[in-house]
Amino acid sequence: MNLHHLLRARASAGRPLRVALIGAGKFGSMWLSQAPRTPGVHVAAVADLRPDRARDSLARIGWPAERYSASSIDEAVRSGATWVTDDVERALSAGPVDVVVDATGSPAAGIRHVLSCCRHGKHVVMVNVEADALAGPLLARRAGEAGIVYSLAYGDQPALICEMVDWARASGFEVVAAGKGTRYLPAYHRSTPETVWGHYGFTPEQVAGSDLNPRMFNSFLDGTKSAIEMAAVSNATGLTPAPEGLLFPPCGVDDLARVLRPREAGGALHHAAQVEVISSLERDGRPVFRDLRWGVFVTFEAGTDYVERCFSEYGLVTDPGGRYTATYKPFHLIGLELGISVASVGLRGEPTGRPDGWRADAAATAKRDLRAGEVLDGEGGHLVYGRLVPAAASLAAGALPIGLAHGVRLSRPVAEGALVRWGDVVVDGEDDAVRFRREMEALGAG
């Protein structure tokens, strides 16, 4: 609770945390808008495949041109300005950089960047939850062996959920469920970039006059992003998915304790200690009353009769029996909150969420009957979506992770709703991301 105090001390001592950001998209730009207002933080470098786009983003969020005028990382360190570059490796290898933020969203790039941070001794904050879902447990292990901190990104829902789980456990409560809200109907699993805007209620005119990304929004809608994020939460907290994956029960904030409890207690959960996502829509499409579409939650259990009485005395909303209750946060602020991770990692050496085992996976699943010869188009595309499955089930099935289901050709047909398996596709066994994932699978199987 004293991060701001510690940041001010670093500022007063003339020793700011020097940070390199990779990826100046929406998440990165949101953090960059806050960084100049945060004491003790110096954005030394912004690396992007398109430096001009990064400069446009900096101008759009209100940075004066002189703030990002440095011509090298060394000049940036001397002057306190920011170096904008497409030379990611130079930004990562620079001696003065303390913390690296990966905000790229590319699983392969994320693996590459973390391993580079391991070589150069830089702490890493992974906004790139796609890479974490693909290989986070092994990435975190490599980071630990290298003596650096690997952390999920505060502001994104997985890290906020991890914080709530930690709060509950550190307070002595047994966590029953944790997760987030989203907009969900079963039909959304078949959504494509062409149909996505109709599901959101956007008109063609609204879409034409915006910079909305149909693949990104489709990933949110078709269940892929939920699977990826809950895999990250499971691997970081020890909570596990139901055997059938995410259930997406409709639920508002007043019903969390009633719905998010085990089935034998009258709830919707397959088991206690489960990761889950709740829907802001009833199955008939009606909006859920007081939904949690943008927020996160944790449900927990009173361990004794005395604690149950305390729940009642202090006005907590419980299940009908008074045994289960919940707390929630109705929003998440994306990159605007990322500074919490930067400060926690850089000043305390503490991650804001970190995988410590492989418990869940986001597996590629056919949106329709797929034909041999078709080329998968990955997250948010036309052919597959990500489904949350227990890691052991993923291994047993030989499931292809959604993070590698892009640009690979099917060697045989896959029925709608079925998992796509390694044996169903032709992959490049020498690809670095494929090799790293296969290494994690071999360790998991062992």
Would you give an account of this structure?
The chain has 446 residues and is of the alpha/beta class. It folds into three domains: 166 residues, NAD(P)-binding Rossmann-like Domain (Rossmann fold, 3-Layer(aba) Sandwich), CATH 3.40.50; 136 residues, no CATH class; 82 residues, Alpha-Beta Complex (Type Iii Antifreeze Protein Isoform Hplc 12). 37% of the residues lie in helices and 17% in strands. The protein is built from 17 helices and 15 strands. The strands form four sheets. A six-stranded parallel β-sheet has the order 3-2-1-4-5-6, with helices on both faces. A four-stranded mixed β-sheet has the order 8-7-9-10. Helix 6 packs parallel to helix 7. The longest helix has 18 residues. The chain is globular, with a radius of gyration of 22 Å. The two termini are 40 Å apart.
Mean pLDDT: 96
CATH topology of the largest domain: Rossmann fold
How many beta strands in the DSSP annotation? 15
- Low-confidence sequence ranges: none
What is the CATH C-level name of the largest domain?
A: Alpha Beta
**Relevant CATH superfamily of the largest domain:** NAD(P)-binding Rossmann-like Domain
Strand content: 15-25%
- Separate helix tally: 17
Q: Major sheet: order of its strands?
A: 3-2-1-4-5-6
Q: Helicity range of the residues?
A: 25-40%
The geometry reads as globular
Number of domains: 3
Oligomer: single chain
Return the CATH architecture of the largest domain.
3-Layer(aba) Sandwich
Distance between the termini: 40 Å
Q: Given the helix and strand composition, which structural class is it? A: alpha/beta
The largest β sheet comes out as:
6 strands, parallel
Query: What is the rounded Rg?
Result: 22 Å
